[in-house]
TrEMBL record:
It comes from Catenibacterium faecis. The keyword Cell wall biogenesis/degradation does not apply. GO terms for molecular function: acyltransferase activity. Keywords: Acyltransferase, Membrane, Transferase, Transmembrane, Transmembrane helix. This is Acyltransferase. The chain crosses the membrane at residues 36-53, 59-79, 99-116, 143-162, 169-189, 195-211, 223-240, 246-264, 305-322. Residues 34-323 form the Acyltransferase domain. It comes from the Bacteria. Coiled coil: none annotated.
Length: 336
């Protein structure tokens, strides 16, 4: 019942409006709420995988890649939306405003993880390189950080090519090639499935941004029917014709489509989730440290609920402090 209590506490902070049609279903506020939810799902998923904390295990054990897919979808949508509206100016500012704002915190936290692991069990630079080659990150569960950096750089290169050719619609081709290349490389180096099972979500977000007006005009009058058809379609495939390859990727895109279309009727308004989203990068980067710190030869919190609450409290406090620091650094770089 631990997870039920936590979710009930979260629900107190939520203000949900049911609308005939929510034209702002992918607005900044809506996507902030969604990313806040996805962040908590990732946290609970990792608790389920690495700590086996009661009911969390049963609820969130298979949800991690879908939550990460949600991040990738919103990122792809947001980047493409900004590029379509700002054009060349967005391309010029992209390295400082987008890539560095992720790269700098990631490098800083990678150093912190390296130092901690070196102190605990003699982790070396050679071990770090070996882990990277086999699909493991010095940042605990940091594959998503590597993926998002790759996709941001790929998007930047795609924008440069589009500006060179002077045809922005060709982004649909360049970003598909980079997405396919990412999946190909992950499979070639035999990375685990979670590295690439949500990869097409980023491309899905780009497509949604490019064709949003057409999507809206076709869906807004029949949202319940569309959602019902998606559920039936998914159920039929899941029960009768599950395919061996691409099933995880298909499930991720199917769930994301349902979530986004539901947003056409449901408006999310939670200051708590918006705060979580504002600190989501730092939360993702720092929470793995406390798996190392709270259960080892020196400190070992045995009780699962106590471990979970302690980890969440320390994660949120640390992410708040780190967010202040990284925001200050990023502003200095952007204004330089």
């Amino acid at each position: 019942m631990n997870i039920v209590l936590i979710l009930a506490c979260m629900a107190v902070f939520y203000n949900i409006d049911l609308l005939g049609y929510n034209s702002e279903y992918l607005s900044v506020q809506q996507t902030k709420n969604l990313k806040g939810i996805f962040t908590l799902i990732v946290l609970f998923h990792h608790l389920a995988i690495f700590a086996s904390v009661g009911d969390v295990y049963n609820i969130f054990i298979n949800s991690g890649y879908i939550a990460v897919g949600g991040f990738l979808f919103i990122s792809g949508y947001g980047l493409m939306y900004q590029y379509m509206h700002k054009g060349r100016n967005y391309v010029k500012s992209f390295p400082k405003r987008r890539i560095l704002t992720i790269l700098i915190p990631s490098v800083v936290m990678a150093i912190a993880y390296f130092v901690l692991k070196q102190y605990r069990y003699g982790y070396t630079l050679g071990a770090l390189i070996y882990d990277f080659k086999r699909g493991a990150s010095v940042i605990s569960n940091g594959w998503y950080i590597n993926a998002i950096i790759y996709f941001y750089i790929a998007f930047f290169i795609s924008m440069l090519l589009c500006e060179l050719i002077k045809k922005r619609r060709i982004m649909i081709i360049f970003t598909f090639i980079f997405t396919y290349l990412y999946i190909f490389l992950c499979m070639k180096f035999k990375f685990e499935d979670h590295w690439f099972s949500a990869a097409f979500a980023f491309y899905f977000g780009i497509l949604w941004a490019m064709f949003k007006s057409q999507i809206d005009s076709n869906l807004k009058k029949s949202i319940p029917i569309i959602i019902g058809c998606l559920f039936i379609f998914y159920y039929v495939l899941n029960v009768f014709t599950p395919f061996k390859y691409g099933w995880m990727e298909f499930k991720c895109l199917m769930y994301l489509a349902i979530i986004v279309i539901l947003g056409m009727r449901i408006k999310l308004q939670s200051p708590l989730m918006e705060w979580v989203e504002d600190h989501s990068l730092e939360i993702y980067l720092v929470h793995g440290l406390f798996f190392e710190i709270l259960r080892n030869n020196h400190i070992n919190i045995v009780d699962n609920f106590e471990f979970m609450v302690t980890l969440l409290i320390l994660t949120f406090i640390s992410s708040y402090v780190l967010h202040k620091i990284f925001t200050f650094i990023n502003k200095k770089i952007i204004n330089s």
